[in-house]
Automatic annotation (TrEMBL):
InterPro entries: DUF8173. Residues 1-20 form the signal peptide. The chain crosses the membrane at residues 106-139, 160-179, 185-211, 223-240, 246-264. It comes from Alicyclobacillus vulcanalis. Residues 116-267 form the DUF8173 domain. Keywords: Membrane, Signal, Transmembrane, Transmembrane helix. This is DUF8173 domain-containing protein.
């Protein structure tokens, strides 16, 4: 289902037929029949499940479960076709050609599924690297004040999670009401953006908490090291189907609750200090 959703998103994000263009070095990703017209110059082309006709110039071409037709005016550096046929008309120029024909529909579908799984894995890997870097940097930046919300989380992680559930439901309900009107849509977007920022900050606190639990407080005294250990645990277990997503959701809600309680206590302390003055 995830592969199908990714392919549908790609098909909606780009038209099925490449229009004539003088722009060079422009990559194309298509899930429909594609034509590179004479005079058009593109970079890399990936077509999944459909045919590709080239009459212009291209760098690297990958077609999965589809045919490749090279017109006499075609100039291509590399053509890789998996599960289809390559028809080259006289006059076409191809420097490198890799062709694997699999007449069995099972193997053709396996190629498509394997390519989709590879793309998903690469996307998850990139997302995990970005998340690790962001949470570690945030924890290091808040090292002077992170002990306050961390102490509250250590007292009761369950309370933080329940607070995160209530805050999430409230933000979703408020955003839904605001989005019902044209004027309220920008406000709803701002509310969701602030919610996401607060959740990421709270998730950095949760990462430090997990890192100290896993490696031990004495072994990871530095905040950034504890955060790195904790977020590595989160990324590793989040890749497990279903269970990993549930775990990430629970930790996300705990991060939302930590940030909400942190802001609430900061507001009360500031209000109390203002009353004393």
């Amino acid at each position: 289902m995830a592969v199908i959703a990714a392919l549908v998103a790609l098909s909606l994000a780009a038209p099925a037929v490449a229009q004539a263009s003088a722009v060079s070095n422009q990559g194309l990703i298509r899930t429909g029949a594609t034509d590179v017209l004479p005079g058009q110059s593109v970079g890399d082309i990936i077509v999944v499940g459909h045919d590709l006709t080239i009459g212009g110039t291209a760098d690297h071409v990958l077609v999965v479960n589809g045919n490749v037709d090279l017109l006499p005016s075609a100039r291509v550096d590399t053509v890789i076709d998996l599960g289809g046929e390559v028809r080259t008309l006289p006059g076409a120029t191809v420097h490198k050609l890799l062709h694997a024909t699999l007449g069995n529909p099972f193997w053709s579908g396996a190629i498509v599924a394997g390519l989709g799984a590879l793309l998903m894995w690469m996307g998850m890997l990139a997302a995990g690297i970005v998340l690790t870097a962001i949470l570690t940097v945030i924890a290091a930046a808040l090292r002077e004040s992170i002990e306050v919300p961390l102490a509250e989380l250590e007292k009761s992680a369950r309370r933080a999670g329940l607070s995160g559930v209530f805050v999430t439901l409230a933000v979703l309900a408020l955003s839904g009401l605001l989005a019902a009107t044209l004027v309220g849509i920008p406000v709803a977007v701002v509310c969701l953006a602030l919610y996401a920022v607060g959740a990421i900050v709270g998730l950095s606190v949760v990462s430090v908490w997990l890192g100290r639990m896993i490696a031990g407080r004495d072994r990871v005294r530095d905040v950034w090291k504890a955060a790195l250990a904790g977020v590595s645990f989160i990324v590793a277990f989040s890749s497990i189907p279903i269970i990993g997503q549930i775990l990430f959701l629970v930790l996300w809600l705990a991060g939302v609750g930590v940030t909400a309680e942190w802001l609430w206590r900061w507001r009360h302390r500031r209000k109390a200090s203002g009353a004393r003055t």
